[in-house]
Amino acid sequence: MSTSWTSFGGDLHLDLTERRAAGAGLRAALEDALREAVQDGRLAPGTRLPSSRALGEDLGIARNTVVEAYGQLTAEGWLSSRQGSGTTVARRAVPEPVQGRRPAARTAPRRQTARYDLMSGRPDVSLFPRTAWLTAARRALATAPHEALDYGSPLGRIELRQALTHYLARVRGVRTDPDHLLVCTGVTQGLGLLCAALRERGARTLGVEEYGLPPQHAVARAAGLATAPVPLDADGAVVDRLGNRADAVLLTPAHQFPTGAALSAGRRAEAVRWAREHDRYVIEDDYDGEFRYDRQPLGAMQALDPERVVYAGTAAKSLAPGLRLAWLALPDALVEPVARLKALADTMSPVLDQLTLAELITSGTYDRHVRRCRLHYRRRRDHLVAALAERAPHVRVTGIAAGLHAVLQLPPGSTPETELLARAQRAGLSLNGLTWHRAAPSPADTAPPALVIGYAAPPDHAFPAAVQALCELLRRA
Amino acid sequence: MSTSWTSFGGDLHLDLTERRAAGAGLRAALEDALREAVQDGRLAPGTRLPSSRALGEDLGIARNTVVEAYGQLTAEGWLSSRQGSGTTVARRAVPEPVQGRRPAARTAPRRQTARYDLMSGRPDVSLFPRTAWLTAARRALATAPHEALDYGSPLGRIELRQALTHYLARVRGVRTDPDHLLVCTGVTQGLGLLCAALRERGARTLGVEEYGLPPQHAVARAAGLATAPVPLDADGAVVDRLGNRADAVLLTPAHQFPTGAALSAGRRAEAVRWAREHDRYVIEDDYDGEFRYDRQPLGAMQALDPERVVYAGTAAKSLAPGLRLAWLALPDALVEPVARLKALADTMSPVLDQLTLAELITSGTYDRHVRRCRLHYRRRRDHLVAALAERAPHVRVTGIAAGLHAVLQLPPGSTPETELLARAQRAGLSLNGLTWHRAAPSPADTAPPALVIGYAAPPDHAFPAAVQALCELLRRA
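Output (structure tokens, whole complex):
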């Protein structure tokens, strides 16, 4: 059941046999074949098609089937039929491909063209436990009730919220329960929902640490909040400066991002007092709280006051960013507004990964995996610090021994940061300068140059070379 | 299997027998009974519930079943559990019906307290191909590059966008390519992003079919667009009335939701002309385009003009709502704004389900699954139509033979819709009246009553009884 000559003058081979074998109806098979031919250009726009009678004879099928197929494809816009001129391939072509990847463009091209990837904020995705994940997924799907696959609570699956309640209490000292936990699609979404909920309650300004993550500031502004930078010192954010300058504050207490201080106990208490004063909230971004290397990390500051501190956690660093799995432990007053906004945004987060993570956590596999990663990243950091001490002793590694990144401070009078970054790019090193992280623009290069080094991202085999290239860059700075 | 003394001090009778007889699982039956008791006030807010052990003993069921039921009801907001104080009836009522595509808080209590679930918009989740899904997930994870697990394009994984490009062309005649496809977390998110992007471009009003999905209208309003109802007739939306009343229009061409007409070829062409005139857009919600029973469905109207019609598709009906997997085929001009807003909302959609669906599609498993579902739902519809013809001949089933729902029109002078719905609830039937779907509020009960029946949701064993109960209700209307 095929034709390749008469009707199309030999330039088109139209084969229905395979499609018929695949179970397609005669008319459907013909439509598919024609659609494909138009799509891939074998049938050029304007091409006049054979008459239904001719094609029907060539293919040995009823003329009516061809007529119906032509009608269908015309209705779909692939073909057009004009009085007199018979049926032709529609002139309008499929649109040209375009590049629509704005935000990805921020990092993707740099890290993909660079030989050495030292961008901060990204884990070593080669550590993702694929087999363990699949095992957990199988277990989860085997026991999940049918309703788990249906529309459900905007808070997320109960199995995961129960598992997280216990895990977060045990590992981070978070005080919450399943009906105050909301599963979100990454901390980005969680922060957006929070900012929108606070805006609804009259908030206008979000305090942010003076060095942070500009994309997070963009999320806050998109939700209608202005951002007010909060100064930093060795004890973390100087929250006593907050006063009335903000209605809520976003902090990274476990490990300031990126400068690396841990928020002191005093400052934590101060922030909570500030929040209690006038019905304000602290948002605790615990992005890498599981990765402290020198000692037991301070617990989450949320435990100081679950009604004033919103805890935000994620699986982006411990498992993979691609999972987009994060969670908020919410004060009672924010559960309804945030859940309502979550439902409005996307109804709820996808359930299968939630069920799988719940299984990973309850089975203890997640703990073992996190321990493995902690050891891995600790070695990475030790390697980096040792190499710098030996080959670029004038560079100071700031911040506590934690997380997946470090800030390297160069002495005053060194090569300016912008020049350093240009050299890094020429050397195939992809990394950010500290200036990029400023919450408020500053006169360029007033401060001594500093680089933010993510030591997690490169695969093991590439890491030593990346560190060597970095040391080389710094030696000449 | 009932208790009325020990645990509740004699003031509550909890009977699971009837529900068990109706085919409910043990845990589901217990949840229903408790939910009902909270709903009708027999269990007052603040009431402390018996321990899972005590209640389990009273009912003679496993303690774990009680624990799970308590957990589920806590997640739904009926109960609350605090360390120390055990489980109590929530003081805060369930959050206001959250907007969004059939979110739990809106339907769950109704559908789960009801014996017969005939709510529209939901598939039979028991058809979800768990084994095939896991097989595809294993294949996908075995071959996925590490970077697939990292931060990536806001458009979604290339593997899925490539698979969808061919699938949508073949099955729905959609004309697009991977650079114009964006994977979103359900059509709810897709619509929200589109409305926000259109608002950025100056749009103020979204035309919506006069009967539709109120949660979608809420999404549009949340994005800053007013909604303008477009009248409907037997040919679908009367788009020639649009004129300058809207800057974009949301249509359900394959199968108007809920009234069930297919948008005629003439109307499709008209809508596209309207959009071309003044740089306007048509949003085509193809929510159930794969489920046409009487003949090959008309292809997507997007093919008439990919630069004027945004195509929105979903796996919510063909696989499961819980996946939150949907996609937009975007005009060139909207790729950048929508991708930017997607990145701002949640960076990108989770990758593992995307990789799995791509594998499912390319392996042909998805096609086989959809065919199986089509047959299943077609039988459901035939059963419903036959039963009505025999036992409620005065009721007219409107709309084409397609989808997962039907609208039942009652003759003028029948019992008013509100009364019908009250009776339905008393009869344990959960369903919506047509009035609920109105885009603009109308004087209640002016039109003859009509019921929207979702015939997909009930499990097979419960479906005949549900239809019987429905016929009984209609016989007396």
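Chain B touches chain A through 104 residues (CB under 8 Å).
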